[in-house]
Structures are given as structure tokens and as C-alpha cells.
Amino acid sequence: MSFRRLKSELSRRSLHVSPFLVLGDPTPDLSVELATASVREGASMLELGFPYGDPVADGPALQAANFRALEGGTSTGRALQILARIREACPTIPLNLLIYGNLVHARGYQRFCEDAAQAGASSLLVPDISLEESSALRKASRKARLGHVELVGPLTDEERLRRIDKATDAFLYLVAHQGVTGVRNGSFETIADLVKRTTLHVEHPICLGFGLSRPEHLRRAFDSGARIAVVGSFLAEVVGKAWHESSPARDTKLLDDYVKAIRPLVAVRSEA
Fold first, then answer.
1. Distances in Å between the alpha carbon of 257 and those of 231, 246, 252?
2. 41, 79, 194, 252: which sits with the fewest CB atoms below 10 Å from its CB?
3. What distance lies between CA 67 and its chain's CA centroid?
4. Where are the domains of the chain?
């Protein structure tokens, strides 16, 4: 799905549950199967990461997912090939990338954006490239017709929110918690308030991530004004646990466990 079609999807004000998967985790083939299983179960967007050895924004579960993919031989070039396979299998689903800056730098902004768009990506978020440093990346993304996404957080003030909102092309990724990714317990009240406050100051749709793991989290996210809800660490934990079990049917069990975990999450979209 092109960036234009992604914007068309968002313009309809529909709601989207978006699993986050690291390309190549735990193997390239299983990575594709997890993505397609997500879509079959009802995920209407996917957020995909390229494996990286120093994922500073990720907690233990996603760090482990990155390392599994790297140990399995998934390089940037291989990740692009896996992305193209997912695009072929899921031609109408937005595929939104979250990639660390060093991987984009190493390939070159323009080449990376062109390669990602050619492989089927709809948008690109590079969380460790700040607004003040992102002009070249925005230019490259737009030239490649790849949506440019910016990141905001709980401590982003109103003036900066507006500046970042003007710089983004598709949606704003709102970090629910200050710090790294990971499953969190406790009240969702402060996060719901954060989403409500943020929507007052921006024009683009809000994508909420970091710490969402239960259906009630997604319901509250949508009720508070988020349009996209990302679940990553929880699903990575499911994959990791099954992957480390040694049995002849490990791959089948991994996929079965993943489907059981994601099914009640994606069902929230049809409830809303």
C-alpha cells in the first residue's frame, strides 16, 4: 500500500490495531508467517522493525526479538526482502516501518527510502533522529513517496507538539510511557489523559505505542482519541517463549500461541 493509500485509509477515521514485528524474528520464514497471521486475524496495519544490535528505545522483549533476527542472519538487505514478501502476501495493508537511525545512515537516506518504498513500505519512523535533524530524511522520504512519521512523548510541550505535527506526513507516534518499550501494569488513566491532551494540539491522527498489551488498553486508547494502537513487546514475549521450547512441533506451536495471543487484541477494532 502506497503512502497515498495510507493517507486515504486514515482520512476515513477508521481505527487500527497494529502489531509490531521485527523482520526476521525468529526466522525470515516465520516472520512472514507471523505477519500474514496477524492480517488474517484482523490486524489492519503492521508496524515492522529492522533488526539492530543496539535498539536503545526497546525493552528486554524487543531487544531479544532483535537479537534472534540478527542471529538468524537478517541484515538490512535481507529485511527488505522479507518486507517485500509481506507486501506481496498482504497487498492492501499499510506497512509502517520503525527503523533506527544508524541503519538508515549506513545505506544513505535516499537509497534507504527508495528501497523501502520499492519493497512495499507505506511510512517510515526513525525514533532517534530528532525534529531538528530530520529535514534531510523528510526530503528523502517525500521524494520516495514514503510517509514521514515523527515521534512525540509525555514530556513534549504544546509548542513543540505543533512543530512536530507540521513536520509529519501521515500520523504522529505517541509514546505512552517515558522510557523504553515493554509490557506495563497499572492504571491507564494517565495515558488516556495524555492521548486526549495531545489530540487537542495536533491535526494528524495519533498512533499510540509502548506498553499496550491487553484488550482494555486498546479500548481505552481508542476511546481517548487514538486512531492506531501498537502492540509489540507482549507479542514478542509470546514468540520468544515458544521459540525457546525444544520440540519437533515448535514452529507450529509458536504460530498457534501467537494467534491465540493476538486474536482478542485485534477483535477490539471490530468492537469500537
1. 15, 15, 9
2. 252
3. 18
4. 3-149+226-271
Q: Where are the alpha helices (DSSP H) in 72-214?
A: 76-89, 101-107, 109-119, 135-143, 158-167, 189-201
Q: Which of 234, 228, 148 is nearest to 184 (CA)?
A: 234
pLDDT in tens, 92-127: 999 999 999 999 999 999 999 999 999 999 999 999
Which secondary structure element, helix H or strand E, spans residue 36, and what is its range?
helix 28-41
Distance, in Å, from the CA atom of 265 to the CA atom of 217, rounded to the nearest integer, reads: 9
The CATH T-level fold of domain 3-149+226-271 is TIM Barrel (3.20.20)
> From residue 111, how far is each of 23, 63, 77, 100, 127 by CA, in Å?
19, 26, 12, 15, 19
Instruction: Tell me the pLDDT tens digit for each residue of 172-221.
Output: 999 987 654 545 565 667 888 999 999 999 999 999 998 899 999 999 99
The residues pairing with 209 across neighbouring beta strands, listed in sequence order, are 175
Residues labelled as active-site residues: 47, 58
d(CA 120, CA 122): 7
